[in-house]
């Protein structure tokens, strides 16, 4: 059963009109009867249906589905350790990940990730792009969000935009409510909460230049 209403589908179609290059949504889910204790996935089905619905709204989009247990080799290849996970992939894997169902305000995060990957345009300032080119070590950005947070999508999108600019950067949107143990590990008491390389942590949807400064601190 589709998750999107017809009105929303039409709005998304309009949003996708200027997509350029193909984008693949690589989805890791839980289809098998086998489940890993403690990793029962309550939103996997809805996430899969949502991605299939989205992929039908543009001829530039396709979807690839993998069972996290049955296809563990593929999951390991992409570095996926939790589900549901959606990878927004262009001609290459830019390290853009969404963990959890991107509903609520995070629906915009998904749509914008698709657009920047398709257009290969992060829409960041030239100054930020030049600074990001200096990064030559792995940088992992984790942005913890909740679906009711109006500021979280801006922070998650910023991480994805940074990842698009440098192959050494990967960026995850993580629904804190779906991964409570991870949220507890990083002391997520307010969102958006951003963790960079386990060493830098901050809260709030910072402007581009301040977000950049925090990432460069991890470098």
Automatic annotation (TrEMBL):
InterPro entries named in the record: Thioredoxin-like_fold, Thioredoxin-like_sf, TON_0319-like
Q: Which residues cross the membrane?
A: none
Q: Which residues form the Thioredoxin-like fold domain?
A: 140-216
Q: Which Gene3D superfamilies match?
A: Glutaredoxin
The protein, known as:
Glutaredoxin
């Amino acid at each position: 059963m589709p998750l999107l209403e017809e009105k929303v589908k039409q709005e998304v179609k309009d949003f996708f009109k200027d997509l350029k290059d193909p984008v693949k949504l690589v989805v890791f889910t839980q289809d098998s009867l086998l489940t890993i204790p403690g990793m029962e996935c309550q939103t996997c089905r809805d996430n899969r249906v949502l991605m299939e619905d989205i992929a039908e709204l543009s001829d530039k989009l396709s979807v690839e589905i993998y069972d996290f247990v049955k296809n563990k080799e593929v999951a390991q290849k992409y570095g996926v350790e939790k589900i549901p996970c959606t990878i927004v992939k262009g001609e290459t894997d830019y390290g853009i990940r969404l963990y959890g169902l991107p509903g609520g305000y995070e629906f915009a995060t998904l749509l914008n990730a698709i657009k920047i990957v398709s257009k290969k345009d992060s829409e960041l300032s030239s100054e930020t792009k030049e600074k990001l080119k200096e990064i030559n070590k792995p940088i992992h950005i984790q942005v913890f969000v909740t679906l009711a947070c109006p500021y979280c999508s801006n922070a998650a999108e910023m991480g994805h935009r940074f990842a698009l600019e440098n192959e050494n950067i990967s960026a995850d949107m993580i629904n804190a409510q779906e991964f409570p143990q991870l949220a507890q590990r990083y002391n997520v008491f307010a969102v958006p909460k951003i963790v960079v390389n386990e060493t830098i942590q901050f809260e709030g949807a910072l402007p581009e230049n301040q977000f950049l400064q925090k990432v460069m601190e991890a470098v």
